[in-house]
Amino acid sequence: MAEDVKNVNENKEEQYSLNDDRRVKVLSPGALVIKRFLRNRLAVLGLIMLITMFIFSFVGGMVVPYGQDEQFYTYTYLDKEYVGVTRNNDLRYAVAEGQQFPTILQAQFLLALGKGNDTFTYKDVDYKTVNEGPDFYSISTADGTMLAIAYKDIVNAADGMAEPSFSVKYEGLKAYVNGASSFVADGKEYQLDEDSNILLDGETIGYISRFVVAARENGVVLTRDFKERLEEALDSGVQEFSYTGEDGVEHTYPISYDASAQVWSVKEETKTYVYSSYEKPSLKHPLGTDNNGMDMLVRLMYGGRVSLIIGFIVVIIETVLGVIMGGISGYFGGWIDNLIMRLVDIFYCIPSMPIIIILGAAMDNMQVDPQIRMLYLMLILGFLGWAGIARMVRGQILSLREQEFMTAAEACGISVSRRIFKHLIPNVIPQLIVSCTMGLGSVILTEATLSFLGLGVKFPFASWGNIISDVNNSFVMTTYWFIWIPAGVCLLITVLGFNFVGDGLRDAFDPKMKR
Amino acid sequence: MRKFIIKRLLISTVILFFVTLIIYTLIRCLPTSYVETMAMQLSTAPGSKPYEVWIEQLNASYGLDQPILVGYFHWLGDFARGNFGDSWKFTVPVIEEFKSVIGISFIMGAISLVLELVIAIPLGIIAATKQYSKSDYIISASALVGISLPTFFFATVLKLIFAVKLGWFDTHGLVGRNFAQLSTWGQILDQAKHLVLPLATLVIISVGSLMRYTRTNMLEVLNADYIRTARAKGVSEGKVIYHHAFRNTLIPLVTIVGGSLPGLFSGALITETLFSIPGIGYVSYQAMTAGDIPFTMFYLTFIAILTLLGNLISDILYAVVDPRVRIEG
User: Fold this and answer.
1) I want to staple B94 with a disulfide (CB 3.0 to 4.6 A). Which of A498, B84, B238, B285 is the partner?
2) Which residues of B touch A515 (CB under 8 A)?
């Protein structure tokens, strides 16, 4: 079938006479260049790479639902200090109504206790202590007036109840140490159950415990039930404590004991709202998220946009400067040429990378706004890079202006600027396009290197270079490959694309090309 | 010939004058961060003079209170007399710091240049002689890949693979932890081992351009008439390529390699910084970011001199190697 078609075509061609124009396929020089370019497989590959990266950077940013600096948050469970529990090892004092028991007396009492005396004297007043039970003392004056009690088991008020009065405390503790189940204080009868709760008419008004349970955060009210269960858990020495709260949800609290401070710290896992840093790649974030909880894929797209735009603007600045200087220099020759070429020599000789690093560090120091900084960066790169293009343009024009068509142009009386920019420059354009394409690649590399060093494009703007600069944190480098490898690959593909295309164009423009 | 060299030398001196003037002006116009930081530190000491007094005193002692042009000629005079001043960051004379770091940079540069030549020239010749073959495509493409690789990215990938995952090398520095206990040979081997990754980075990044240069020149030579003549004489293909063509390819190669010789001393700023190799590149990077004017001025001038010297050498070599080139005064 295919052969038949071919034969038909051949027959058609044979119908034209030999000098018929239709037999010859006429191609313009431009079409020839395109044909030669498309025949170069590497160049086509480069073109495809470039188109991909352009679509990725410019269209991609519009398609994705997230913004450039949109931060994502996540809930994470953090262990927070919830409750601190100490076992009370100090004597506490409760003073009887209408009496005084200042600290100086407390000290005297402790001294006496240490010596094993049951009386002590202070300022000619005698005091008497009675050991009412383990770690429970009452202090009275010599005439028998009750002053205060000292105790280690603490009488706490129940939730929402008033602080128990002195006599309730005294009688309650007395009952507690003696194992009694009821006691009378202030004329009322109180019950003491097995859980050391103090009840009045069936209502719990307080409880006795050796532990001091305090919430670590203000505004957290711990229920009696919670405290009790916690104390039980501490007594049994478990590492974890689970408690079903009023909401019916069971929480588990890890318990750790600090032996030096003699404090049990009970931690609570709390839900905390944080940036979702270094999230692993998922459907929602195909390349994960970065340190600030921003989507990496989106950052890559916007970074590509920044890198490409900077590349283009710098190359445009370079080319405009270079063509003007080179054109003037090559066309006029003489002292102008000499002057401009020495200027080119000077710019060639200025070490551009160190200069840009110094300027970058200075801008860091002056805290230049990131956007203005980007502008400066482009201007500096463009201003330092025109010398090569100027030299090339001059060389081309020097040889072109000696050719006949220029003599003809001069004879026709065409103005100087028209001769330069209409007749000479277009002949330089092939070389210009090649050097611009290659130049784009190298400018993007320079910008990326600077951004990597933290001296180029700055946060919040993304650039492939500053995305990779995350590897300065060696943990990121080794663990979170998805942060920096894709950016490097994008960079490589883009620069390689420009170089392939530039190389292909050079070959395609070269009329001496054999193929 | 002598006239040509003298003329070029004079032009180079003039260019150097303007380059250093531009650099000096630029650096003087910057906020002198180092001096300010130092004044800030000094003024916070208990019972110290206030910040303004300190900064005035420091500026005076560093000659920063002079107008730029006066300061420049002052600097130029000192420089010409070989007085390069004291580095602010490293608190030693600039020349001493320079002497202590230039060696390793030169060694790195020399080794990588030799490796580049050994790799690039044969591959470039193969690519040219078998133009449009598969090997030509592979060589040309990999040369371009090398040129397109971002140094910092490639170095990091190398570090990740060979230093972190495989653990063959250290990620940073020039000497290992137990360097002091090693014998002389052990110390040399230790340093060599630390240089493997930086050298690999340098060579792979920069071998491409030399490879392409060799290929282009070889192609040009292979299209020349005398090659056709040689082939017409019936000379064997091997002899045509390695006897007739290769020797002529050497002309531009010798020029470009000769021109790159001064560059051996310039150090590799990015690579050295990434691998924390204490060479001229790394040290000057530290000096530059710290705003150390004496060291930065010295380094930039040094680089400018190297560039000019490189151009000069390649011009002279061009005339020396190729007898067809005539120099007109």
Assistant:
1) B84
2) 132
B164 interfacial to chain A (CB closer than 8 Å)? yes
Sequence-ordered list of residues with C-beta below 8 angstroms from that of A358, at least 6 positions apart, any chain: B26, B27, B30, B288, B296
Q: Chain A: residue nearest B166 by CA?
A: A478
Domain spans of chain B? 2-80, 105-321
Do A256 and A352 lie in a common domain? no
Mutation for B interface: A344, A359, A365, A437, most B CBs within 10 A: A365
Classify residue A193: in a domain, yes or no. Answer: no
The phi-psi region of residue A188 (left if phi > 0; otherwise alpha if psi is between -120 and 50; otherwise beta) is beta
Q: Are residues A295 and A258 in the same domain?
A: no
Is there a single domain that holds both residue A380 and residue A427?
Answer: yes
Residue type, B143: A
8 Å CB contact of B284 and A349: no
Residue A452, both tokens: 């990597």
Cα(A356)–Cα(A381) distance, rounded to whole angstroms? 8
Q: Is A445 on the interface with B (CB under 8 A)?
A: yes
DSSP structure string for A304-367? HHHHHHHHHHHHHHHHHHHHHHHHHHHHH-HHHHHHHHHHHHHHHHS-HHHHHHHHHHHHHHHT
Q: Are residues A486 and A362 part of one domain?
A: yes
CATH number of B105-321: 1.10.3720.10
CA-nearest of B202, B248, B239, B193 to B221 is B248
Per-residue pLDDT of chain A (515 residues; tens, 9 = 90+): 444 444 545 555 556 777 777 777 777 878 888 888 888 888 899 999 999 999 988 888 788 777 777 777 777 777 777 777 777 777 888 888 777 778 888 888 888 888 877 788 877 778 888 887 777 888 888 777 778 888 888 777 776 677 778 888 888 788 887 777 788 877 788 887 777 778 777 777 777 877 777 777 666 667 777 777 777 777 777 777 777 766 666 777 777 777 776 777 777 777 777 777 777 777 777 777 777 777 888 888 888 888 899 999 999 999 999 988 998 888 888 899 999 998 998 998 888 888 888 888 888 877 888 888 889 999 999 998 899 899 898 988 888 888 888 889 889 988 888 887 788 888 888 888 989 998 999 999 999 998 888 888 887 788 888 888 887 777 777 778 888 888 899 999 999 999 999 988 888 887 665 44
Could you tell me if A236 and A263 lie in one domain?
yes
- How many Å apart are CA B18 and CA A343, to the nearest integer? 9
Contact present, A139 and A95 (Cβ < 8 Å):
no
Residue B297 with chain A: CB contacts under 8 Å: none
Q: Which residue of B has its CA nearest to A353?
A: B269
Give the count of beta carbons closer than 10 Å to the beta carbon of residue A73: 10
Is there a contact between A354 and B160 if contact means CB atoms under 8 Å apart?
A: no
Residue A9 lies in a domain: no
Supply the CATH number for residue A407's domain.
1.10.3720.10
Q: Which domain holds residue A335?
A: 29-72+285-509
* Domain contains A93: no
Cβ A209 vs Cβ A153: under 8 Å: yes
Nearest CA-CA distance, residue B17 and chain A, Å: 9
What is the ipTM score, two decimals?
0.86
Q: Please count the structural domains in chain A.
A: 2
pTM of this structure: 0.74
CB of A482 within 8 Å of any CB in chain B? Answer: no
- CA dist B45 and A241 (Å) reads 53
Which two structure tokens, joined as six digits, stand for A261?
């401070």
Judge if A363 and A409 occupy the same domain.
Answer: yes
Phi, psi angles (nearest 5°) of residue A89: -115, 0
Contact B294, B284 (CB under 8 A): no
A254 and A299 in a single domain? The answer is: no
A341 shares a domain with A241: no
